[in-house]
Each structure stands twice: as C-alpha cells, then as structure tokens.
Design brief:
This protein is mostly loops and 206 residues long. Helices cover 4% and strands 4% of the residues. The protein has one helix spanning 3-11; strands at 181-184, 200-203.
C-alpha cells in the first residue's frame, strides 16, 4: 500500500491497518493520531515529523525508517523492530517500547521521559542528549550505547547492561542502578543519590 492510499483511507475514517505492507511509504508530516499499524511493515518508510500520538505500532517493522521529529507520545511500540531507525528529536514521551529492538537507532535529543523500555535492545544506539527522566530501562541492553549528556534522572536501570556505554556528563541522579552491569565511561556523570547496590561498576575511559 502506498502512503497516499493509506492517507486517503485514514481521512475516510479507517483506523485499522493491521499487518499492512507500507515498506518505503512516504508518510512524512502525516497526521495519523491513534492509527492502528499493529504488525505493519514500515521498513524504510518516511515518517519524519509525522503525528502518531497514541498509535498502535505493536510488533511493527520499522527498520531503517525515518521518524526524526515524529510525535509518538503514548504510542505502543512493544516488540517493534526499530533497528537503524532515525528517531532524532522524536517525541516518545510516555511511549511503550517494551522489548523493542532499537539496535543502532538514532535517538539523539529524543524525548523519552516516562517511556517504558523494559527489556528493550538499545545495542549501539545513539541516545546523546536524550531525555529519559523517569524512564523504565529495567533489563534493557545498552551495550556500547552513546548516552553522552543524556538525562536519566530517576530512571530505572535495574539489571540493565551498560557494558561499554558512554555515560560522560550523563544525569544519573536518583537513578536505580542496582545490579546493573555498568562497565562504562562515567567521566563527569552525576550519580547523586543513585542506587548502586550490587552494581558491577567500572569506569572505562574511552
């Protein structure tokens, strides 16, 4: 299905596009709040600055998709495939990203405040300057992730794997890091009142 066809149907009142094939569809700046794209294939799709607030993207394939600046507030992205996706500056406030695959995704300057990333795969992801205040990253895989200057104030990083992550100048104040694997670059990081009980803590300067 083309982006134009989806927009035509959405404007006509259709909201459910379960499993739709939208590979490389052009939906840039599209206004699609609350749309159901459950398990749809949006690999390589252009969704820059699209409004997808409250959308159901559970299990959707978004590998390599361009979502920079998109509005994904409160969207459901559980188990979504977002490897290599561009989410630079996207609004993911309160989004559900449990067990999503964000391997090598670009989330620089994205707003993920209060987002649920429990068990998410963020291997090699770019989260530099992102806002993850109060986010749930319990058991998230952040191996080699770029978290330079990232706000993780009050975030739940219990049992998270941060091996080789760059946490320089990150705000980890009041974060829950107990039993996390924190072999990372912590130069200039703020760990004020962070819970480091049982943590494997080594400062690896890059």
């Amino acid at each position: 299905m083309s982006g134009a066809e989806l927009l035509r149907r959405f404007r006509a009142g259709q909201r459910r596009f379960y499993g739709a094939d939208l590979q490389e569809a052009d939906l840039g700046q599209a206004d699609l709040p609350g749309i159901d794209l459950h398990e749809a294939d949006l690999s390589g799709a252009a969704l820059e600055e699209a409004v997808l607030a409250g959308a159901d993207l559970h299990g959707a394939m978004l590998a390599g998709a361009d979502l920079h600046g998109a509005d994904l507030q409160d969207a459901s992205l559980t188990r979504a495939g977002l490897a290599d996706a561009d989410l630079h500056g996207a609004d993911l406030h309160g989004a559900d990203l449990r067990r999503a695959d964000l391997t090598a995704a670009n989330l620089a300057d994205a707003d993920l405040e209060g987002a649920d990333l429990h068990g998410a795969i963020l291997h090699g992801a770019n989260l530099a300057g992102a806002n993850l205040r109060g986010a749930d990253l319990h058991r998230a895989i952040l191996i080699g992730a770029d978290l330079h200057g990232t706000v993780l104030h009050g975030a739940d990083l219990h049992e998270a794997d941060l091996h080789g992550a760059d946490l320089q100048a990150a705000d980890l104040a009041e974060a829950d890091l107990h039993e996390a694997f924190l072999v990372a670059d912590l130069d200039g990081a703020d760990l004020t009142e962070a819970d480091l009980s049982g943590v494997i803590l080594t400062n690896e300067e890059g």
